[in-house]
Amino acid sequence: PQVPVIGLTWGRVSPELLSLAPVDIILGSDVFFDPKDFEDILTTIYFLLEKNPQAQFWTTYQVRSADWSIEALLCKWKLKSGLVPLHSFSADKEHLASSSLPGRHTIEMMIISLAQSDGT
What is the DSSP track for 31-63? Predict the structure, then answer.
């Protein structure tokens, strides 16, 4: 099977994005690294999920500040998220994928999808 891969500019709807065939999963790796981009990211994800209501956005991110949160933006864009425990897919190791980043880093994985009309 073919898997389409397109580059995205968060917050912008490109012709490639408009003509994208239906999707099941949207992958994003460490996209939540600058709070000024959080709404643009979720706006784009919302657009894709509205076109594909059963789809999910799977993303990993490094926790950089306890003060940063996307909860209010998830509510604004009628989205919900759920954390995926790293141990559920053996990703709770110190040197995952031969990574040798200095220091200790907290990595999380979450799945974002459309919230139901009742907010769940």
Answer: --S-GGGHHHHHHHHHHHHHHSTT-EEEEEEE-
Whole-structure pTM value: 0.79
- Give the start-to-end residue ranges of the domains of the chain: 26-94+104-114
Residue 33 sits at the vertex; the CA angle it makes with 81 and 112, to the nearest 5 degrees, is: 15
Q: Please check whether residue 10 is in contact with residue 35, taking contact to mean a CB–CB distance below 8 angstroms.
A: no
Tens digits of per-residue pLDDT, 1-38?
Answer: 777 788 889 999 999 899 988 999 999 888 887 889 98
Q: Token match 């209010």: residue?
A: 72
Going by C-alpha positions, the residue among 44, 32, 102, 24 that lies closest to residue 94 is 102
**Pairwise CA distance, residues 28 & 71, whole Å:** 18
Secondary structure class of 70 (helix, strand, coil): coil
